[in-house]
Amino acid sequence: MSSKKESVNELEETNAALEQFLLPSRLERLDSVLEQRSSTLTVVLDGVQNYHNISAVIRSADAFGLMDIHLVGSSFHYSKGVTLGTERWMRIHSHKTPADAQRALAESGYELVVLQPEEHCSANSELQSMAVSELPFEKRLALVFGNEKFGVSDDLQAAASIQAFIPMRGFVESLNISVACAICLFSSTIERAAPTKRTAPLDSDEQVQIRRTWLSNSLKHPDTVLKHITSKQEQSKD
Predict the structure, then answer these.
(1) Which range marks the domain in which residue 147 is found?
(2) Which of 54, 67, 117, 217 lies 20 to 30 Å from 211 when distance is taken between CA atoms?
(3) What is the pLDDT of residues 143-181, one digit of tens each?
(4) Residues 151 and 225 reside in one and the same domain
């Protein structure tokens, strides 16, 4: 426990040094966003191939306050023109196989929710089924979106405890993955009566660690700045 506290203290010292190189308005914006970040809700893209879909999901995840995204597959590509640089403020985890992703998510205490068309949910009585607006966002949830053609893999289907759907009222039976994801994430921010965020915030230690990364991302040459800071700290010790 003490070693973790010492590590956080060291990060706070580095953060304080980096703050000197940012405008107060930038620091205020950074801290405002950080306070609204959550790691109790995450998105899993299981074999999603379209780079535009991946990019749009990353952008939506940032917009709705997520800290983590999990990508499953052998290779991933995204467009900075679509993400608008939001990948810099996210933790993006990659897993070669669905089994790898399932183990990592289980170790982190996530309950898996697979997103399906409503008719598929009705046909599968083995899993608890509900509309995305009814999901228990107070829990640690991983929303799993499958491949554009084949859907969610068997491994992640088997590991899921809930299947969720977006109620549809037209002829179309499904939505683009990025659109469906944005709807699900918006649902995590509202109650039935009034908008309110239901996902838990990051703990203070995690905020310190992420703030360290974000401060560096806000500078053009963070390595040079850190070397300068380290040099001055060593000189002061002497």
Answers:
(1) 39-200
(2) 54
(3) 999 998 889 999 999 999 999 999 888 878 889 999 999
(4) no
